[in-house]
Amino acid sequence: TLDSGIQFIVEQSLDKAIKDTGAKGAAVIVMDPHTGEILAMANRPTYNPNQFYKYGDNEWKNRAVAYNYEPGSTFKSIIAAAALQEGKAYPEEVFVDKGYVEVSGRRIQNWSGDAYGNVTFTDIIKESINTGFVQIGMRLGAYKMTEYAKAFGFGKATGIELPGEEEGLLFEPKDMRDSDIATMAIGQSIAVTPLQLVRAVGAIANGGVLLKPHIIKAIRDVDGSLDREVPPEPLRQVISPESASTLAGMMEKVVSEGGGMKAAVKGYHFAGKTGTAEKLKDSGSGYSAGRYIASFVGFGPVEDPEVVILVVLDDPNGVYYG
After folding, report:
1. Residues with catalytic roles
2. Smallest Cα–Cα separation from 36: which of 157, 168, 196, 192?
3. Residue 226 above 90 pLDDT?
């Protein structure tokens, strides 16, 4: 399913991003949200397969499918989808943000440190306001939030035709304290793979229908005759087309007015969500001070999306916001 033209642009852009940011690693996936076809997939660091023995595990790893990471605010798009579908929040509803919220003795602040006062749900998405998402997470509760995360395909391998795929990590709802609900609502203390995330946001772009991602379009025999085709495989309707359309409109504001304005493309409407997550220590316990994973996921054109794209930069130097 790979498109050599798109793959070339992705490889060039990725090399430039690594040079500009000094990131230790990166992954990019471009998918067709209507078919689940992977149009491009690239990782850094990479290796020359003709001389694979000169490289180690870190270069061999296909981060796009075999990398568990905390998604941070890109995951808020999934929480927003659950809230809209369950009627727990609506776009113009006003929330009060005082800059922080305390849950189970844990203080959660906004990424900017600012207090926004009275804000609508749309503004909460546009400005990626943590306190608002904590409130929405508490309304949904542990079981509903986990139910939607699983429905969107998290916590389980996608089954793409590639080796080494990870499953990610989700809480057991019965074990979740209020502070766990709060951190999950802002995309922390869970782990996803890039492929899981791009597929989940692809469902929002695809009218709420989740597809199985695939990278093999067809298999041909030696004489060129078709052995079998791999058709699109819709799995389930995760949210209604109305909820998906509403959320797409809200995510479009992220690109036209909010934190994702660098993703704007003149003459088109694109939707997206930024993400900045603290990086876990290699030991898995606690976070590494001053080290982050910056990401952006987006799709468009909003009227009839042709691509959904995720860019993940691991441990960039300097500016680390998604």
Report:
1. 73
2. 196
3. yes
